[in-house]
Specification:
- By secondary structure, this protein is mainly alpha-helical.
- It folds into 3 domains: 100 residues, DnaA, N-terminal domain (GMP Synthetase, Chain A, domain 3), CATH 3.30.300.180; 38 residues; 108 residues, no CATH class.
- The chain is 51% helix and 9% strand.
- It has 12 helices and 5 strands.
- A 3-stranded mixed beta sheet has the order 1-2-3. A two-stranded antiparallel sheet has the order 4-5.
- Helix 7 packs across helix 8.
- It is elongated, with a radius of gyration of 25 Å.
- The N and C termini lie far apart (60 Å).
Length: 302
């Protein structure tokens, strides 16, 4: 005997179907990728599990490749072994195989939490004429489930009302993606988040090339940022390279970067003996205190 679905399961199934119908209305390209990324972020716990979701998050979807930020190399290795299983769940969720590959990136997941956007103020939407409603109805895509048509029609009518307000100069759009904005917004929350991701990635690259920097002012000519963002990304870079050295999987270039991160000076200004002492400390081989002219005495972790 077949088990009857609970109301919660029915609601979830309906939501998935509605999301799929809305996605089919979007043209292929950036807008559909943004919507698919939003779906994945919203249901990421279901895709990778609650424990894994605390250590990784989907950051970008580009040309059918999903880029996932992970907070450490250990978690990146663990998730890489589950890659095919995760990919199968994602393809089952999106149904149209928009994601064909996953790439895990270490070092940028520790970001300042994005504050939830304030609820948009209620707008008095202009009514649509019968002619405009008929145009909306004719532009609806074919649906396999006719029970969804009233909801899809309602959403399409609201979109047409917003477009009507925009043409009348009563509403603004995001200059980057074209989404409708609330009165006090200059860009939409999605584009603001994307800008922060690009800013932090650029800052990560600058700190890797100039690992002795200690303040936001020192990188302002390359990547404008505030102290909070700089310190957050700086700790990310420190943790990544120190972990590589400590685990014995670092390259000579990564050893050189780690020493400069610890001493806060370019490699040319660090004596060879001091470089060896600091590297031995980072590898955990030398349990003595190590002095550098850039730091006071720092002690190995117990």
């Amino acid at each position: 005997m077949r088990r009857r679905k609970t109301q919660e399961e029915l609601d979830q199934s309906l939501a998935v179907t509605v999301d799929g119908a809305l996605r089919s209305m979007l043209p292929r390209g950036e807008k559909r990728s943004r919507f698919s990324l939003y779906q994945l972020q919203k249901r990421w716990n279901e895709v990778v599990g609650a424990v894994n979701a605390r250590h990784c998050q989907p950051a970008r979807l580009d040309k059918s490749v999903l880029y996932v930020d992970v907070d450490g190399s250990v978690w990146a290795s663990e998730l890489s072994m589950l890659k095919q299983e995760i990919l199968g769940r994602i393809q089952g969720l999106l149904t149209d195989k928009e994601v064909r590959d996953i790439r895990f990136h270490t070092g940028t997941v520790h970001r300042r939490p994005v504050q939830a956007a304030a609820p948009p103020s209620r707008r008095e939407l202009p009514p649509l004429t019968d002619e405009e409603k008929e145009t909306v109805r004719q532009n609806l895509p074919p649906l396999g489930n006719e029970a969804l048509r009233p909801r899809i029609f309602e959403a399409a009518c609201r979109q047409a009302q917003l477009e009507k307000m925009y043409r009348a100069g009563q509403l603004r759009k995001c200059p980057r993606c074209g989404a409708f904005l609330d009165r006090k917004e200059s860009v939409c929350p999605a584009c603001e988040q994307e800008y922060r991701v690009h800013q932090e990635r650029a800052l990560w690259r600058i700190i890797r090339r100039r690992p002795w920097v200690r303040r936001a002012e020192e990188v302002g000519s390359f990547v404008p940022c505030d102290d909070i963002t700089f310190n957050m990304v700086k700790k990310d870079v420190d943790a990544y390279f120190f972990e590589r050295v400590r685990n014995g999987v670092s390259t000579p270039e990564e050893d050189r970067i780690a020493v400069q991160l610890k001493c806060h000076r370019p490699a040319d200004l660090i004596p060879e003996k001091e470089q060896g002492d600091v590297l031995a400390y980072l590898k955990g081989k030398n349990r003595k205190n190590v002095r550098t002219s850039g730091n006071r005495v720092f002690h190995p972790k117990q």
